[in-house]
Amino acid sequence: MKKLRVAVVGAGIYGINHVNAYLWNENTDLVAVCDLDSEIRKSIEEKYRVKTYADVEEMLNNEDIDAVSIATPDAFHLEPSLTAIRHGKPILVEKPLATTIEDATKILEEAKKHNVRVAVDYHKRWDPAAINLKNELSNVGKPIRGYMSMDDIIDVPTEWFNWAHKSSPVHFLGTHCYDQIRWFMGCEVVEVYAVGNKDLLSSKGIDTYDSVQAILTFENGCHWTVENSWVFPKGFAKNNDGRTQIVCENGLLRADSQNRGVEIFDNKKCKTPNSYFILESNGRPMGFGIEPINDFVYCLLNEKPFVADAFDGLQAERIAEAVHRSLDTHRAVKLSEI
């Protein structure tokens, strides 16, 4: 079987996972990495012996590449995506597909124009706990009410990134939830109502929401409450927290993504690592954070549909847009308005 010649655009905190995944995937050759940061490029070249570029256009003009991962920060997916698409390269875009409907729509339209396939890395679809719930939903009758939370510690917007003001808990965390719940329900959101707080991060000079709570009404009549924040205290046992509960006609489904069964204690605090997300075993990355990247390769080589594609990315962004519009207007927003 032919190996895919791949490139990664954006090799920061999460993009480096794409780099490692492709280096270990037996069906790929990592040809090049593109990043604006000269220190990141230097590190990639020294550690992985992979050629690097500072410009996507230059990389695609100079290298023979079959597919591209876009792992730039949330608000900067548009330009590298369009550049790759115009070169005829299928792309895997880190969630969210974009942080505006306008950008997401441009990516879809350009992909259709150039007959290019687009996948979106909503990796919660590969989480074993989420898959278990998805499978069980067919056995417990009509869903009546759902709850999902996903929260990060405050280090994420204050220390990990310098672009938190260009995103929000809605885009960074909420779209994971919106996509996963659409996947669970098998239908679309019709209305959104949201409330939120801007206090803690704004006091630190970061103009974005601390926390957002949204009520989503689906076509099947199920109502979901979705809570997202990125201001959990530094002392929290894990970098993030997530919980799901679904009340159905004939059953109750729950999942706790915070404590995955492993506890580590030191003299400062208890840690509860996610043993299923991304782990290294003998240098090889594994887990449901890596599987979407491997699945992208599998689907391209075998001409299979993507688990989460550009349409899914657009629908999640439409919900996010409705949530932000509800926050701004203090009223319920119908998705037909978006």
Q: Any overview of this molecule?
A:
- The protein is α/β, with parallel strands linked by helices and 338 residues long.
- The protein folds into two domains: 4-122 and 288-308, NAD(P)-binding Rossmann-like Domain (Rossmann fold, 3-Layer(aba) Sandwich); 124-275 and 316-337, Dihydrodipicolinate Reductase, domain 2 (2-Layer Sandwich).
- 35% of the residues lie in helices and 28% in strands.
- It has helices at residues 15-24, 38-48, 56-62, 78-86, 101-113, 128-136, 155-160, 169-185, 200-203, 291-302, 310-329, and strands spanning 4-9, 28-34, 51-53, 67-70, 91-94, 118-121, 143-153, 189-197, 211-218, 223-232, 240-248, 251-256, 264-265, 270-271, 279-281, 284-286, 333-334.
- The strands form four sheets. It has a seven-stranded mixed β-sheet with strand order 12-11-7-10-9-8-17. Strands 3-2-1-4-5-6 form a six-stranded parallel β-sheet, with helices on both faces.
- β9 and β10 (223-232) form a beta hairpin.
- α4 packs parallel to α5 (101-113), α5 (101-113) runs antiparallel to α11 (310-329) and α8 packs across α11 (310-329).
- It is globular.
- The mean pLDDT is 96.
Question: Can you give keywords for this protein?
Answer:
alpha/beta, Rossmann fold, 11 helices, 35% helix
Q: What are the SSEs and their pairings?
A:
Blueprint lengths: L3 E6 L5 H10 L3 E7 L3 H11 L2 E3 L2 H7 L4 E4 L7 H9 L4 E4 L6 H13 L4 E4 L6 H9 L6 E11 L1 H6 L8 H17 L3 E9 L2 H4 L7 E8 L4 E10 L7 E9 L2 E6 L7 E2 L4 E2 L7 E3 L2 E3 L4 H12 L7 H20 L3 E2 L4
Parallel strand pairs: 1-2, 1-4, 2-3, 4-5, 5-6, 7-10
Antiparallel strand pairs: 7-11, 8-9, 8-17, 9-10, 11-12, 13-14, 15-16
